[in-house]
From TrEMBL:
Its main location: cytoplasm. This is Prostaglandin reductase 1. It is an enzyme of class 1 (oxidoreductase). It catalyses: an n-alkanal + NADP(+) = an alk-2-enal + NADPH + H(+); nonan-2-one + NADP(+) = (3E)-nonen-2-one + NADPH + H(+); (5S,12S)-dihydroxy-(6E,10E,12E,14Z)-eicosatetraenoate + NADP(+) = 12-oxo-(5S)-hydroxy-(6E,8E,10E,14Z)-eicosatetraenoate + NADPH + H(+); decanal + NADP(+) = (2E)-decenal + NADPH + H(+). Gene3D superfamilies: Medium-chain alcohol dehydrogenases, catalytic domain, NAD(P)-binding Rossmann-like Domain. Monomer or homodimer. Pfam families: ADH_N_2, ADH_zinc_N.
């Protein structure tokens, strides 16, 4: 099997030399085990964010959809598909009894198996519960999403539309803005790199913001939180604007505590692992995709040897929707 090991702490953007590419013999299968061949491997922002907390060296984890190619477990016959968090590795021996964060690929009703690491996988569950449970959106409310054209953000905005909200998105290119407004049904979208965000938001949401789904943190989030309404809700999902920065050199962001106090906001961070029942989310997500209410887009990079490039490309904002690697 071939796999990527992280052997250095990233400084700024991860470098190719921070990884080691190794080949290893896999042991023969024991009773109960399966041999799985990766078909789709995910590249995600957390792989950058978690790096400083890991003990080196470590295997580059991420979700993957794999097909069972050998089996000593009747529950997982050859040809069936699984989702594991084994990451950047092409073949894995797995004991389903003891494997963590492992499940059979959910019923996708004929949709592409790649969705198992995207809209019907961890990012989908993040959008579904992270938005619905924390923001508790009501029809007619104004919702703002940052990282709006990404895997999680593009789903959050569309789920907000399904719930009858008015949705404003911020993303990093004019092409993404066009896609959000013309294809995904966002009421308004802005390129945060070129627009005066405070002014644009004032105009797009003159009555203020009720829910904010925060993927990016930093000054853009401060600007949005300062325009929230009384009893507004902020779901803090991530802070990608800071992932590649040296924490000691981060620019100062505007203080948001006065807005939180005076507007009595509820600001809550979460990790997707909080929710145990991912299947309930998968059922709704598949239903919405099948009915055309939820559009999914993938940014596909081909080749196991291109995982690093796909990862860096995603961090640089090359992706619309979910960045995935086809093995
Ligand atoms: P995306 O598909 O959104 O990809 C990352 C995107 O981030 C890029 O496309 C880029 O888009 C944007 N970006 C990069 N640098 C910056 C920057 N400096 N400022 C603003 N945006 C930037 O990734 P995901 O949807 O997988 O993840 C989105 C967020 O959700 C991340 O913060 C991630 O850590 C978080 N997350 C949290 C989870 C949880 O359990 N709390 C679970 C899953 C994800 P652009 O062109 O718009 O800049």
């Amino acid at each position: 099997a071939r796999k990527y090991i992280v052997k250095k702490y990233f400084q700024g953007l991860p470098k190719k030399t921070d990884y080691e590419f190794v080949e290893q013999e896999l042991p023969p299968l024991k009773d109960g085990e399966i041999l799985a061949k990766a078909e789709w491997i995910s590249v995600d922002p957390y792989m950058r964010a978690y790096n400083p907390q890991q003990k080196l060296p470590y295997d580059q984890i991420s979700f993957q959809v794999a097909s069972v190619v050998e089996s000593k477990n009747a529950d997982y016959p050859v040809g069936s598909r699984i989702v594991s968090i084994r990451g950047w590795v092409d073949y894995t021996v797995i004991d389903p009894k003891t494997e963590q964060r492992f499940y059979k690929l959910p019923n996708l009703d004929g949709l592409s198996p790649s969705l198992g690491i995207g809209a019907v996988g961890m990012p989908g569950v993040t959008a579904y519960y992270g938005f619905l449970d924390l923001c508790k959106p009501k029809a007619g409310e104004t919702v703002v999403v940052t990282g709006a054209a990404g895997a999680v953000g593009s789903l959050v905005g569309q789920i907000a539309k399904i719930k009858g909200c008015r949705v404003i998105g911020f993303a990093g290119s004019d092409d993404k803005v066009k896609w959000l407004e013309q294809e995904l049904g966002f009421d308004k979208a802005f390129n945060y790199k070129t627009v005066d965000a405070a002014k644009a938001l004032k105009e797009a949401a003159p009555k203020g913001v009720d829910c904010y789904f925060d993927n990016v943190g930093g000054e853009l989030s401060s600007i949005i939180i300062n325009q929230m309404n009384l009893l507004g809700r902020v779901s803090v999902c991530g802070s990608i604007s800071a992932y590649n920065e040296d924490p000691r050199q981060l620019p100062k962001a505007t203080i948001i505590q006065p807005a939180i106090v005076s507007k009595q906001l509820k600001v809550e961070g979460f990790l997707v692992w909080r929710w145990e029942d991912w299947n309930a989310a998968f059922v709704d997500l598949v239903k919405w995709i099948k009915s055309g209410q939820l559009k999914t887009q993938e940014h596909v990079t081909e080749g196991f040897d291109k995982l690093y490039d796909a990862f860096i490309g995603m961090l640089a904002g090359e992706n619309k929707g979910k960045a995935v690697v086809k093995v």
